[in-house]
Write a structure and sequence with these properties.
Length: about 290
Amino acid sequence: MDQEMHYSEDNKFIPITSISNGVIQEVAPEIYCLPVQVVNVCFVGNPSKAKGWVLIDAGMPKSADDILDALRDKFGSVHPPRAIVLTHGHFDHVGAIVDLAEKWDVPIYAHSAEFPYLTGEKSYPEPDTSVEGGLIAKMSGMFPNGPTQLGSRLKELPKDHRIPEMPGWRWIHTPGHTPGHCSFIRIEDNALIAGDAFVTVKQDSLYKVLTQQKEINGPPRYLTTDWEAAWESVGILKHLEPTVAITGHGLPMYGEELTKSLDKLAADFDKIAIPDYGRYVDPTVH
């Protein structure tokens, strides 16, 4: 089974890192956020307990050792998780997944619409270097977009919206950034892991990414292909009234700041999030 797994052929280290890299933060009880270069991974549960936690997303390419080192620094003795659960399969969310899944011998869960990109069948659309935005958007042509092969470890998220190995949580289909993008919410306190359905940094701006300047925004422009669906997904998440949100990029956002920011993003998504031009921009969506 392990031999079936492999990274995309274009998988490679991306030399960009924010000031928050490597610092684990407990955002809510038993929900931890670890920035890995410029993307966040989450730990749900207690990694120091046997079968006590789940990993959400798997970071940048070549980052497995960084994730393992951060876990050991924070929790000491670290046990394998029960599972890895993916918001989606872009390169910066599956960058260390083969190394980690093989090391821990665990299943990987994702939405069925994401499977073609996780079973070696289909590449994601190429990053849009022509899109309106900052320097990272212009650099995005160097980002991997090939398919990852997760073999028989890959499992479909159940249709009833439960998340295996995460009791008390539900998944929400939030497409737009990718066809099978999902976000995850904990029922007891409405804590949200949003993936890239929206983010809390202007991800196409190199300066803002490096400094982690906090501002709510739509999904990363250079990799989003369906802006109408992305807008609908933000509206769905707004109506869930999350109390805290960890997004795929940027700092966690809480309480009133989150509520007001998410309300504004949902109302003005066409002005805030949708670029004025780009390969995947439909002018009728504005």
